[in-house]
Design a protein that fits this description.
By secondary structure, the chain is α+β, with helices and mostly antiparallel strands. The protein has one domain. The chain is 21% helix and 36% strand. It is built from 1 helix and 4 strands; from the N terminus they run ββββα. It has a 4-stranded antiparallel β-sheet, covered by helices on one side. It is globular. It starts with 10 loop residues before the first strand and ends in a 14-residue tail after the last helix.
């Protein structure tokens, strides 16, 4: 593994897409010590199934990318510090 990836800061950028055939998420990501890339999760509206363009990534890495990306989105778009939430996730 290249030491260059040790200097990368964890980050992701998530965009959505929706057209006549597909909708989903496009995630540009970088993880310290791992590298960077793209992950596309697409829902085929006709076939009614999800697919992933994952650049040959294995499941543990995909789960880490999704977890960090969704956590980042929650931090930006959800006010989880309100009184109607607690640490256990229960309302």
């Amino acid at each position: 593994m290249s030491k260059m990836f040790d200097k990368i800061k964890d980050h992701s950028h998530v965009t959505t897409f929706d057209n006549d055939s597909f909708c989903g998420l496009h995630i540009e990501w970088a993880l310290k010590g791992v590298g960077f890339g793209e992950l596309v999760l697409a829902y085929d509206k006709e076939e009614k199934k999800w697919t992933a363009d994952r650049e040959c990534m294995k499941k543990p890495l995909i789960k880490e990318i999704l977890s960090k990306s969704m956590d980042g989105l929650a931090d930006v778009y959800l006010d989880l510090d309100k009184d109607d939430f607690n640490d256990s996730g229960d309302k």
